[in-house]
Amino acid sequence: MLAVHRVSKSFNLSPILHDISFAVSPGERVGLIGPNGSGKTTLLRILVGQEQPDSGHVALTPADLRLGYLAQGLELDPRTTLAEALHAAAPDPQRLADELAEVGAALAAEPGRDDLLHAYDRLLDQLNRAEGGRAAAVLAHLGLDALPSQQPVGELSGGQKTRLALALVLLGEPDVLLLDEPTNHLDIAMLEWLEAWLAGYPGAALIVSHDRTFLDHTVTRILDLDPIHHTLRAYEGNYSDYLDQYLAERERQSSAWRDQADEIRRIRQDIARTREQARHVEITTKPNQPGVRRIAKKVARKAASREKKLDRYLASDERVDKPERSWQMKLAFDTLAEAHIGRDVLTLEELAVGYDRPLLAGLNLTIRAGQRVVLSGPNGAGKTTLLRTIAGRLPPLAGRARLGASVRLGYMSQEQENLDPASTPLATILSAAVMTETEARSFLHYFLFEGDDPLRPVAELSFGERSRLSLARLVAEGCTFLLLDEPINHLDIPSRTRFEEALAGFPGTILAVVHDRYFIERFATDLWLVDEGRVTWSPLVVTA
Predict the structure, then answer these.
(1) How far apart are CA 41 and CA 234, in angstroms?
(2) Measuring CA to CA, which residue among 535, 435, 495, 494 is closest to residue 250?
(3) Residue 61 to residues 114, 175, 429: CA-CA distances in angstroms?
(4) Looking at residues 393-405, what average pLDDT do you find?
(5) How far apart are CA 29 and CA 166, in angstroms?
(6) Whole-angstrom Cα distance, residue 100 to residue 106?
(7) How would you classify the pairing of strands 526-531 and 534-538?
């Protein structure tokens, strides 16, 4: 159906993909994983023809196979209205009717051609769907049917933009879906809907995602891109199956490497002893003892031969390489943050939040020191508005949000607008804490900003790099209470894992908007549920 043959790609002489080969069969669900920057998006763009490989090729069977590509961001002019976007994406019934007439005429002239018959059936099916309110049905499934048709897409929430982008892809009725981070900005209810929808989707899907629970529920094969060697390895099963296999492989490799290191150490010690014996014989004998010296020289040659043999082995493919450390974020919240001593960190008193009208009202809730609270609910329900109000970015419509006396608040926004596009990571950290430039560079190293990365403009950073920089600044500021709005949306799986570990050791308090169920299960102590303009506390119950 979709086959990739030995594809390689480099940018500015830096390899991104090397000799990549795989195939996606009809009806298959495949997960594509790897750290940020490993080439996942580049590979998808090559599949749809937006990038050209340096070598290798992509084959589609049949040749008219329809690919539907969901990019990470909604690639539309913000001024485009919903109606205009749908009109451009939905098949034009008149165009389909004209194509159907042409294929029908060709089929009448050559009735034995299977390709024409296939094309005729496909066009007829598309025409029936186009005339049957297909766009309205797709919008209804994705919860977008209540939006005004003239609303500019730039005014949609992050979740609505993701759902609209998916709707535009589905209107093209693709045979193969190429989904790049489809779960970003989706709430839990919509994530579960998307999982159920994919289970019934008749085509194939190649899914780039860092949502581990989503991958567990949707895919049956994992393709893992190695960011060091730029190669790809396939694993059968879902993400949990992949992780078990991957860790088992690393343990086997580590064990073999340790055994090899012990053996190499033994051989080198034996060579050193043999050489020392030969040298000792040579310096303790006299010229009138030629037989003894000849034996000593033979022993020395034997030692040299064994050393050359060892060198050849170390340079060969037989050598077991030391397992390389996974690409991971190393955070150190606990080294710079000061724990909050007081009992009540945040108190909401009859709080109402919104813009021209309340989105949430009558909020009377308290967060105590050390709690990890997840704020959950549908997209557009007011979760971000509540965080912005608590952070002082928006005035409350009624009531108040009161912070504890010694609380130091840190706010990480969903769109990362807190970062100055014209600044650099180095300047950002120097403005947040009293450090020398050397100390700031060393600090940024923990967040994987290496080489010239600290000097790059923020505007040139990827989504994941900006997320890491936002987190680094919160750490440098010594925050004790973190407001995190979708903090892991653009982080890859290794980074999410390290982020979870860092938060587990963070001595302060956290209120986070998160839709990653895997993350919630391991992170949250309490759950705030948004429903019909209210926020209620609930015991932590997450659908796995």
Answers:
(1) 18
(2) 494
(3) 14, 11, 51
(4) 91
(5) 17
(6) 10
(7) antiparallel
